[in-house]
Design a protein that fits this description.
The chain is of the alpha/beta class and 398 residues long. It contains 15 helices and 21 strands. It has 2 domains: 175 residues, Rossmann fold (3-Layer(aba) Sandwich), CATH 3.40.50; 209 residues, Rossmann fold (3-Layer(aba) Sandwich). The longest helix is centred in the last third of the chain and has 15 residues. It is elongated. The chain binds cytidine-5'-triphosphate (CTP).
């Protein structure tokens, strides 16, 4: 049920850290993937090797590990997750979080993130009941941090009371509740993605360089916020998003048909690079060379514009329609004009000139155009663009 959801698990330094290894399993059993981060103190209680072996991921430990920075910066590491769980959340970690400190990798990730965070506190009952801890707890709750536990019971230190970390299954259930009750819960969103292929004859076709990676990232980000996503994709090379209904098509006309079947929806994101033209007279026989050496002439017909068609629908028009404008010249002027011409609500404009490395690459540099004007986003990964867009859509659809 958590298929495709990514959890960043920060393991704090307490005796309950051993239960975090079980938590990795409990989350995986529910379909989530888990990337562990361990504090220095945590590695006194459990070994990074166990966390890595159980999760199947590298364990991140050090803020200043340059290799890690090259692989994935700490901002990216914290934002690529759908949920961050801190378990065990020690008194010390809670205090640092409440103060907004960034003194090691774990606290820096927590300060840098804009994804939901849940803590599972674990400490001695006196520490838990201390006015300072209760004050920190209140601050964290006010900051929007979810809290699971602690439970009452016998403690490793021989005392009895509140302070035992919740059982891994309870923490995993609480995580599932947060992940499945995102702000887009109950919303249906259509995402088109990838290129289309327009046949010339049974063996040849016209295509474009779209990989579909931005569309996949958007579908993942929307479903992580709880949306039901119909993902309508041309023949893309990117991985398919997880937990979405996947509808595969080949041509622009098939894509439009599939969109019409998938309607109604609350919102639609048209990220596909749809071919503007198809062959007017595609043949079902292979075009052969002839003895005279005649060069075939390809006649084109215009494809339907899916974005414009849906944006201009009188009935069933989604409340929020987002289009893309991939341009090489006069990006903002062209994109602004495109938004008005097609009558969509938002346009995500980007420069796809070869020197930007965006087409087929992992990063994107976009400007969001809405009825209120232009918002320039810094260059960031396609995943980060997707998450920012999904959050903005969730705010709009509230
Ligand atoms: N689009 C669509 N159907 C088409 C062509 C484009 O749904 N037949 C959508 C794309 O998914 C994208 C937006 O329209 O969201 C803009 O695509 P783009 O190719 O940039 O615009 P075009 O209308 O093709 O304009 P031009 O090629 O002249 O720039």
């Amino acid at each position: 049920m958590l298929n495709g959801r990514r959890v960043l698990l920060i393991i704090g330094g307490g005796i309950a850290a051993y239960k975090s290894l079980e938590l990795i399993r409990a989350l995986q059993k529910r379909g989530a993937s888990v990337v562990p981060v361990m504090t220095r103190a945590a590695s006194e209680f459990v070994t990074p090797l166990s966390a890595s072996a159980l999760s199947g991921h590298k364990v991140y430990q050090d803020l200043f590990d340059l290799t890690d920075e090259a692989e994935m910066g700490h901002i990216e590491l914290s934002r690529s997750a759908d949920l961050i769980i801190v378990a065990p959340a020690t008194g010390d970690l809670m205090a640092k979080m409440a103060l907004g400190m960034a003194s090691d990798l774990a606290t820096t990730l927590l300060l840098a993130t804009d994804t939901p965070v849940m803590i599972a506190p674990a400490m001695n009952v006196r520490m838990w009941e201390h006015a300072a801890t209760q004050r920190n707890l209140e601050t964290l709750r006010r900051d929007g941090i979810y809290v699971c536990g602690p439970d009452e019971g016998d403690m490793a230190c021989g005392e009895f009371g509140f302070g035992r970390m919740s059982e891994p299954d309870s923490i995993a259930d609480a995580a599932a509740d947060i992940l499945l009750n995102g702000p887009l819960k109950g919303k249906h969103i259509i995402v088109t993605s990838g290129p289309t292929h327009e046949p010339i004859d049974p063996v040849r076709y016209i295509a474009n360089r779209s990989s579909g990676s931005q569309g996949t990232a958007i579908a993942n980000a929307l479903s992580a916020l709880g949306a039901r996503v119909s993902f309508i994709t041309g023949p893309a090379s990117a991985e398919m998003p997880e937990g979405c209904d996947i509808i595969r098509v080949e041509t622009a006309r098939e894509m439009l048909d599939a969109v019409q079947v998938a309607l109604p929806c609350d919102a639609a994101v048209f990220a596909a690079a749809v071919a503007d033209w198809r062959m007017k007279d595609a043949t079902d026989r292979k075009i052969k060379k002839n003895a005279a050496g005649d060069i075939p002439v390809l006649n084109f017909a215009e494809n339907p514009d899916i974005l414009a068609t849906v944006s201009q629908m009188k009935k069933n028009r989604p409340r929020l329609i987002v289009g893309f404008a991939a341009e090489t010249d006069d990006v903002l002027e062209n994109a602004t004009a495109k938004r008005e011409r097609k009558q969509c609500d938002w346009i995500v404009a980007n420069d796809v000139s070869p020197e930007t490395g965006i087409m087929g690459g992992t990063e994107n540099d976009v400007t969001l155009i809405t009825e209120n004007g232009l918002i320039d986003w810094p260059r960031m990964s396609k995943n980060a663009v997707a998450q920012k867009l999904a959050k903005q859509m969730a705010d709009e659809l509230k």
